[in-house]
Design a protein that fits this description.
mainly beta, single chain, 24-stranded parallel β-sheet
């Protein structure tokens, strides 16, 4: 990781703030920190009996009093858990022997965030949920970003990224973890060509937020975030304030529907220059919130050439879903009029979104615009409630709905464009649906029917307008 002056400033600020932070039990450390040397029987140069000295320290400390480690090399040769706040001076290093685990179970404050703190082949766990830790604490200066970033993920409950990071291999998250920006801004994370999945999540209670993820160097079949449910269900996944660039896939799951995800939040995500489907949710997601998410397929200076059948989002086997402001943006204009329109009719900017076998879905304020494929493909679903959903396509249907039951669709608009005169599509198609009310439907059509209905039962339409031009 590059060392920049802004990183130093951010690190100083975070260290200062951390000293004022509340502890894990909501209380700040009290009294002056106690030096660990008060409990050791050997020289400060080397604490061979650190386990004995530090293990008895918490019982001797006052309420919420911190244990202070001055500059020295501390050797840990047995499992050690510290249940008190800990403060570490610059120059302190903990060498953890193989087979041993050093656990900091309360607030952990290091006064030099850019320096290595931990060596050895043992395991370190820092359970501080308030202050972020840093991958630099595990870096010996010769490893690439990937190696010590993985060490940081394994050791820290909250990993802060203070600077731009280059990743050569997947980062596996198999314990509850928060990965956040440590500098008060979105931090770039760039995946190199060797990366298949940038982050592989195999644990529940995982948060990733405030990152700029660049996947432009990766190959087809890669994903920025892979939610791996192959071994069992995941719970409480939170992906917030992330910008994705040039992804073949942004967020995908295992895709077998053998297990599921219970409780997932996708909040304030944007996918720029999307090369393929950006969210693939197949593994029985439930209790889902999707807020302020956008796929943009425009490339600077030209069209994307994405096949018309490629969705921006695929949602299957989902239940209890709340969605607000879920958008898809394609290319507004045909770029090259010399290219036959048949090519554009099948290759320009893909489709909108698919819902299959989904239950209890609320979708509010959604816009799909300038795609050549369809806007919405809804099949075998029930309990849908749509409010203010608009589709503009270069051609093809705005809504194709089959086997939808017990639903209320309000404020829908579909406007196929007039670019492709040889192609006939209906704007709004409903087949084999039952007990559905559509209130407020505005359709524009050029070369097909505005509204096509087939084999439905108990449909109610109010306020329908069809414009032919």
């Amino acid at each position: 990781m590059k060392r920049k002056w802004i990183r130093i400033a951010a690190a100083w600020l975070l260290t200062t703030v951390s000293l004022l932070s509340l502890g894990c039990d909501g209380k700040a450390p009290e009294n002056k920190p106690t030096d660990v040397r008060a409990f050791a029987s050997v020289s400060v140069a080397r604490y061979a009996d650190l386990a004995d000295a530090a293990a008895k320290a918490p019982g001797e400390l006052g309420a919420r009093q911190a244990l202070y480690f001055p500059a020295a090399r501390y050797t840990v040769t047995a499992d050690l858990r510290l249940d008190c706040p800990v403060q570490v001076a610059p120059g302190a290093v903990f060498e953890v022997a193989a087979g041993c685990t050093l656990t900091f179970a309360d607030l952990f404050t290091a006064f030099d965030v850019q320096r290595r703190l931990f060596t050895g082949d043992g395991k370190v766990l820092i359970m501080d949920a308030v202050n972020p830790g840093y991958a630099d604490w595990f870096c010996d200066g010769t490893e690439d970003d990937t190696a010590y970033l993985q060490k940081g993920v394994d050791a820290l409950y909250c990993l802060g990224l203070p600077d731009k990071t280059f990743v050569l291999d997947e980062i596996v998250i198999d314990t509850p973890t928060r990965i956040v920006s440590a500098g008060g801004m979105q931090i770039p994370v760039t995946a190199q060509s060797t990366v298949k999945n940038l982050f592989t999540v195999r644990s529940g209670d995982v948060t990733i937020q405030d990152l700029l993820i660049d996947m432009d160097n990766t190959q087809e079949g890669s994903a920025a975030i892979f939610l791996d449910t192959s071994a069992g269900d995941l719970k409480n996944i939170n992906l917030t304030r992330i910008k994705f660039y040039w992804c073949f896939a942004g967020i995908v799951d295992t895709g077998t529907a053998a297990h599921g995800i219970d409780g997932i939040v996708l909040d304030n995500l944007s996918f720029h220059g999307a090369k393929d489907t950006q969210i693939v949710a197949v593994d029985n997601w439930k209790n889902v919130r999707i807020l302020e998410v956008e796929v943009t397929r425009r490339l600077y200076g030209g069209h994307t050439g994405i096949n018309v059948n490629v969705m921006a989002y695929i949602f299957r086997h989902m239940s209890d879903v709340f969605i607000q402001n879920l958008d898809v943006n394609g290319e507004a204009n045909r770029v090259n009029t010399a290219v036959p329109e048949e090519w554009y009719a099948t290759h320009l900017d893909g489709s909108g979104m698919e819902f299959t076998d989904c239950r209890n879905v609320s979708l509010n304020r959604c816009l799909v615009e300038y795609v050549c494929g369809g806007g919405f493909w809804i099949k075998d679903c029930s309990g849908f409630r749509f409010e203010d959903v608009q589709v503009f396509t270069h051609h093809n249907s705005g809504f194709v709905i089959e086997n939808l039951t017990d639903s209320q669709l309000n404020g829908l608009k579909a406007s196929p464009g007039a670019d492709f005169a040889a192609i006939t599509r209906d704007s709004f198609i409903m087949k084999n649906c039952r007990n559905v009310t559509v209130d407020g439907l505005m359709l524009r059509t050029c070369h097909g029917n505005g509204l096509y209905l087939e084999s439905n039962e108990d449909l109610t339409f109010n306020n329908v307008n069809v414009l032919y031009n």
